[in-house]
Design goal:
Strand order of the largest sheet of chain A: 1-4-18-6-15-19
Oligomer: homotetramer
Structural class of chain A: alpha+beta
CATH superfamily of the largest domain in chain A: Acetamidase/Formamidase-like domains
Number of strands of chain A: 22
CATH topology of the largest domain in chain A: Jelly Rolls
CATH class of the largest domain in chain A: Mainly Beta
Largest sheet of chain A: 6 strands, mixed
Radius of gyration of chain A: 21 Å
Largest interface: A-B, 104 and 104 residues
Strand content of chain A: 25-35%
Distance between the termini of chain A: 45 Å
CATH architecture of the largest domain in chain A: Sandwich
Shape of chain A: globular
Order of helices and strands of chain A: EEEEHEEEEEEEHHHEEEEEEEHEEHHEE
Chain lengths: 424, 424, 424, 424
């Protein structure tokens, strides 16, 4: 008989604060953050994670906690996990670590999540100029499905995934990051600091001073927010330090492409069951540097076979002309913004407030595409929404239906206790 | 018995030049270009189209024609087609025209296409800094499949679609376009002029002077290059002039999201079978202006049910750090560029030249996604390639395979006469 | 430049009777029916076909023609086509012929079809005890879609395929067929004879006497009525005579699993574009005899990538207890009958007559599954119906809807001229 | 805040025997088996289940336990669960209970299963004439994936589902069952008796004497073995007794259509998370009796949205001619047997023993279809296998590959400890 089941290598305790966990979490990338666990190639191991806010954003039906969220602390990652092969030899810089996500989900007993927007002055979001105030929706999970009292008439199967998964950077790579981001990162984010647990020693002071934030995705993977990195997918991560030092966190029950509201997936606590391989020398063999140093690489991944199947999509176009009518040259970000705004307006005609739709499009399994990127001067982006997520609202397609059959409003702050989909 | 089959409203003759066609084509948008045909709501009608280059790019195995392509003439559109209802009342400004694409394909007897890049000085493309020279691949169609002697080892089912479909702008909208594009459009494109057929009269001189180029997608639809606008899909176009004046062209046997090489789909001649409805007052009821005037709208569409089904995808990430290592702030265009470059490098390890892969990713059914657009400072874009397009090359997934089993090179200009996939 | 497009090897003229076609058709299987055309491996060739009834069932809105259909003549096949390799060497007995269906569709200008039931005394059908009278529905095609004035509220994309595709049997195999079928085939079918064209000569008398009917599928493929043998699929057929002698016919715009009404797909004229390979010695290498001789084999095939995508299915179960309450032992045919009857009753609650639903389930892309075949004494079969085929009728799923919103009746014979879906 | 998560209404303890469980299990259908739990409409509740053999078939690498399996005891069901509405009013006979499967899976800590065949004399299976001896394969789960040391080179995502789900029959329905099955059920199965726990009292003697076996599916649902009844699906069950008395069991990690080897899915312990609705009077409104009494109905269900996505299928045909060459008249069971035998032979050419393939086709997500059921005298059935389940073996499609690259044999009894897929 073979062993089976997964070995829990990083547990979390949701009753404790992020800095009270038995195995310390971390919210910065740095080569000297020591591994808290080890996993061997071929074994199935389990990693548990707290939610992106570390418990700061709660189940209360108010957006006050989102309004005052401390963005300097978000993304308490589980790990680092040192990856070694069957003979105990660790992954080396230049190797690839192939990480297969065999299973994942919410933590048992904690089957809920939230989607929020931040205040414009405290992090904002993709459409913060249109939605400057903090709002929040709570989602409850019924197995594969999620529903929200704040956005009634909607229920959908999530494509659950970790927002953050990555390896530790080498010092050289970290220096590249810190160098190039110095000028563009906004002040509010630059001033973020390591969380409490890492204080005290000289070493931690050094790490806190040098380490990179977990907000963006980078060469090591990181906060890529790729919504299809779900069950059965496999990501090939470059190794920059001995042991690879794999970290993960920021679990999403579901997310739309772009995660437009920023705190924008259905954020939750959760677990991953992973299986790793080491591909010796794989970084050189399979990846190609896209910049001045051999470190300028990006991960590759394969999508798993069990995503929800949707057959009917309603698609909104956007071009790179902004809301003031100004032309931007082949700018896919502007085009996508326009597509999202169009979708929000259309769906709001069916009885939702725009705040509700903004939250919804940030977290439902909608697809954001770069359709045309060469037809000067307009980039064309599209946002495709699977109509099956609306379980009571007749939002297209096939018939253009009269948008008057469903009415609900929610400004992101009002308590709503009735769950309209509970009886469906 | 009911009538059946489609009525041919715009025929083309591939033996004639664009300006010799019986029903004049047009390559500009202008409200005063007169309709050449009429279609009634509910009837199935057929529109034929010449290829994007108007026959200038030929089946010859050389990129010389792509190199010297006259971009001022591309997109000879078929139409305008005036849309009227069952009682003969035309579509009015403020209505929506719902256009269903019931069928489409190459023109019988002309089952081939091409994918090309332009010279950097003559139009360029998304990666023109990396691929500054004109290249070309010829594709032959075997029913739903396409293969190219220039890119052996690849054969795939296309998601065929029109690159351009749109309604005529009103004078007010045209003025908005001309105003906002004045500063950002490059000189080479701005100097484009109407093609020969439209010369001579005072009216045509006026139109030629005022009309907008067909290169970008805009409020009227236009060259959106949405690769999923295929069989069974339905697009809701705003109406700006009486009769809607629907035009279409630039047929693509297949295209990748972004159409990165610019002349970048599998360009071909072709036909559409369309069915229209008029939604009276629909523009106000279903679309929302996203700018300073009520004209700042964008079309909505629904995807059809018969796209090729792919189950295994290899995905490349890109972040908004450019090839020089410079940081861009949440720039999805830069992130997508990086993802495409990564994919090109990876696939070129399997025996292809980078020119071959650039052409391939521009025209195969790959998906370009905006994965993260809020995680400052990096946008994260992904390019997903269905591995089934490789019929002989072991490009992932599931095993990281040794990239040494397949060798071929093609610099975009060399004649290759053998069709390696013909015997498969 | 390479040649492209397909070579027409078997044309048909729909204005002529089956026995007046330039290349003779045939409606029996016999090794001595001479090839009418030849195709070379690797080339794309086109075969045209008349409809299953040979024009006897017409577009008239009456079931009189179905009532008096001459089943002795159905399935006028196009071919045989002799298959040779690049050096002109024909396929040999013991080889496999791999036939790829690159494209197919209705014949241009003949975009309509019919679904019918026969009288119980003249062929019947799967549920002839419940539906003993001839009925008929006419379908009109709008590109990928079909709709019927007789079954309003329904419109769907077909999975178009040839009902019959097969190779000629050897004399030895033909003798096996004639022997084993002698006792089980009903009288009415046994008395069938070759059609007119084959009369006159001694040789034809011999063939007419010996040849097998095209009704059933057999070792050579034949009338397998596999609804997924559509665009992009590839069937591996055993070769029993020199040249393989490939024949095909009985085109279906769409069919449900089982083709329950017998004349039960959307029958139409049509064309195939095929590409063949010869796998030398493949019959022995890849197939295994399942009976007393090496000839007892069955074809293998691969499904193509462009079938319509449906996401929501309503599924009806059936067990092997018949309508009288009698138990049958693990009988999948009885179980499937029960599942189909259940589906007919359910859908008829939404305003349809049972005759309409019987015709619909015979021709729409529904799936018939053998779910349990071992749980004595009940086989369990299921019929799954994609709910998207109903474009106006709220037939499930997700909400159990009140079945009172839609009313229409049709007894299979009444002229109905209005097309309710034309305006959608 | 709303409550969330599921309420455990039926726990099981895998360390205990079936008859030692805290809440008694049952392996017969009878109206008087008392409910062990209650669930309210709209609430999410959790049911745990032991495996079909009740622990008799173990993880040992020998088929001895399968050989001596006591079929009189299989299917220890969890329940009955009494279903009541929000006001405490139970489901009544004539209602429908809509049961949504929100989630399911193996029991934590017990992530393994088995597929077995029984001896011909002890239950047999669909192909018992060809495979008369007991065999067994053990499967280990890695999240969504399963692999078996006994069938190397295979790894796939399961479509997990309960084999048995049903409501209690009324006495009238039970009498119908017992009457009609008396003559056809084999002796060995007829002699089965209730398991130990139910012994002792007069009432239990009566129940044991009258109750129906759980082996077949029937009007109440039951052992339908519908492999698509997975996450997100919803089954509408008729109610025959007050409270509906819902029971479920026989969890399958994965099963092929037909479950051909009889003990044939990947059998495992597991859990369901369910949500019920009561549709008052729904039995009469939505179901139609298909026999002499109003009780002759069958359930309806809807398939969920998260089944594994496969794009490439290899399909084997079978016709209703048996292995001796004898013709059967439109017999779908014979046709399916032939299709399965053909598939076994084909795949065994790639290095597997036939016993291995028989087990594999019984439990992998293959599809069994009734393709033609009217083309006398041959029914045509097909078996479609997703080629992606083979992770190392080049079993089709697209190229007919030489079947010599992979060698392994397993007679169903030999211990094999190496897991060839562990390193993939």
């Amino acid at each position: 008989m073979a062993p089976y089941g997964s070995r829990l290598v990083v547990p979390v305790d949701l009753k404790k604060k992020p800095w009270e966990q038995e195995l310390p979490l971390h919210n910065r990338w740095h080569p000297e953050i020591p591994p808290v666990a080890e996993a061997t190639t071929g074994e199935l191991f389990r990693v548990e994670m707290i939610d992106a806010s570390g418990g700061a954003i709660t189940q209360n039906y108010t957006a006050e906690d989102a309004k005052h969220a401390d963005l300097s602390a978000v993304h308490h990652l589980s790990g680092p996990i040192r990856i070694v092969d069957n003979e105990g030899i660790p992954a080396h810089p230049g190797d690839l670590v192939a990480v297969e996500i065999c299973n994942l989900g919410p933590l048992p007993g904690d089957e809920w999540g939230y989607t929020a927007t931040f205040d414009r002055e405290n992090g904002g979001g993709f459409l913060t100029d249109h939605f400057p105030h903090a709002t929040k929706a709570i989602w409850y999970f019924e197995g594969i499905y999620a529903y929200s009292p704040q956005i009634p008439g909607v229920r959908f199967a999530g494509i659950t995934h970790p927002g953050v998964i990555g390896t530790a950077p080498s010092m050289e790579l970290l220096n590249i990051w810190n160098g190039r981001e110095r000028d563009v990162v906004e002040n509010g984010i630059q001033s973020l600091k390591l969380c409490e647990i890492e204080k005290g020693t000289d070493k931690w002071e050094k790490i806190a001073r040098e380490a990179a934030r977990t907000i963006p995705g980078r060469e090591n993977g990181g906060n890529c927010d790729i919504k299809n990195l779900s069950r059965g997918s496999k990501v090939y991560l470059p190794v920059f330090v001995e042991g690879a030092n794999l970290s993960t966190g920021d679990m999403h029950f579901s997310q739309g492409d772009g995660e437009v509201s920023f705190c924008g997936a259905i954020e939750m606590s959760g677990f991953l069951e992973l299986k790793c391989d080491i591909i010796r020398g794989g970084m050189k063999e399979y990846l190609t540097p896209m910049g001045p140093t051999p470190l300028h690489v990006n991960p590759i991944f394969e999508i798993g076979p069990v995503e929800p199947r949707f057959s009917e999509w309603l698609v909104f176009e956007g071009i790179s002309v902004d809301e003031s009518g100004k032309q931007h040259y082949l700018d896919a970000s502007v085009a996508y913004k326009r597509a999202v705004l169009n979708a929000i307006d259309y769906i709001s005609k069916f009885g939702y407030s725009k705040e509700q739709v903004y939250l919804l499009l940030s977290c439902c399994p909608c697809e954001g595409r770069i359709s045309g990127i060469v037809d000067a001067p307009n980039a064309c982006a599209t946002l495709a929404i699977p109509t099956a997520i609306f379980d009571q609202v007749p939002v297209g397609p096939r018939l253009v239906r009269k948008p008057d059959v469903f009415k609900c409003t929610y400004d992101g702050n009002l308590p709503i206790t009735k769950n309209p989909s509970a009886s469906s």
